[in-house]
User: Fold this.
Amino acid sequence: MKTFLRVTALSLVGAIGLGLSIQSYAQTPDLLDRIKAKKEIVIATEARYAPFEFIENGKIVGYNADLMRLVMTQLPDVNVRQLDLPFQGLLPGLDTKAFDIVVTAITINKERASHFSFTSPVAISMTGLLVKERDGALNAIADLNNKTVGSQSGSVQLQALIALDKQLKDSGTPGFKAIKQYVSFDEAYADLASGRLDAVAQSIANLGPLLKSRPGLFKVLPGSIGEQSYFAWAARKDADSETLVKLFNDGIARAAANGTLTQLQTKWFGTTMDIPASVTP
Amino acid sequence: MNLTDLIARCVAYAPQLYEGALTTLMLSGVAVVCGFFAGILIHTLSTHGSRPIVWAIKAYISVFRGTPVLAQLLVLYYLPSALGLSLPGIVVAVVGLTLNTAAYQSQILRAGFKSIPQGQIEAAQTFNLTRRQRLWHIEIPQVVALTLPALISEMIDIVKASAVVSVIAVTDLMRVGQQLSSSSYRPLEVYTLTALFYLAITSLLSLAGYCFEQRMMRRKGAPS
Assistant:
């Protein structure tokens, strides 16, 4: 009995020592290693942004959902847990590590890029103005002086409206009557339909499905406002997330190289887009 | 507007809304039941506990009654994950709603406990009943009977308060309504239907509460 105890104690000490030395030699596992070990990745999405991501028959579908599935074929053993939550909660939640990456159409801009690490761009983001079809007085952007406009709070489209307002005022015209902010674009569309708003600023790629499913209700003013930007997905900007972002970039690059990206664009937007491999905001 | 088309669309929305309604019902059901027992515990501690415990309970009640449910849920979801403990949204939603309703229910129950005549307590002591026996067999049945209308209205309040849980990634009835309004671009009919689902849930709950009340009254009236 005594020897047994001694042997057990000695081997335990040895095992602990070995374990400690292995741990100090091996690199600390980063986010991608932990995802592989857990066999699960937590992806956050705002599934209210057709055709990029929306719900159909209870499932998240769309351009980004298809592309994300292609990217995830690189990790066949990893189960995807995709959460749907409001846009305003996506980046704060990413920051506090509630999820691993955000896969939703996020417009790349300087402020966001200084806090978060964007993947390669996945689509072009151009802001257009949606007005009522029957509104005969609104035919050009300059007609929006003294009108009430709106967009989603925290969005790049809202910033484009604020910039346009300044531009209108600088050129001697009165500018907008008011700029309203909404939790989601759908509330803004509803206010446009009911006449509380005169125009909604939204990415032109998103307006296609709206015009198609509600014909005769809305139209898009010719031209675009703000600067042309790109949509990408976002991860945390730290060394821990670097390999995960690289894996996503590799997946997007592969889809671009073998033509699947163009196929997906035709499927969801009806047109194709020329997207650079990387952009500097 | 074509009526048959409208009905066809509403029928198509129904299965998804039903799924969401089940989530809402489960969340608020668990929260209300756990909150009831937590409320009793809080009340017992606040009458028999030491002074620091009573202060802590007072602070807890004012925090949970004095801040919006939305803020409570966001803090409960993001604070642990910032500290490295990632909890699923649904767990946080149940815990958050339970903590919230426990604060309210403890106050509702307090009114019930206060109205029990001191003579009954003394009689129970004379019969050598333990404190636990006295609580579960003498006090609580009467407290529930007295405060049932207030408890049912608290239950309905929690069903409605749960409509904000989508901010922490829980797909409840409200979120399903939002998703459907996004994919159909028909917010008015989707949100109306969603509201009707909420009305159905709360009506069912108040009906169940009414039946329970009737049964208790019959039992009270029956010769024993």
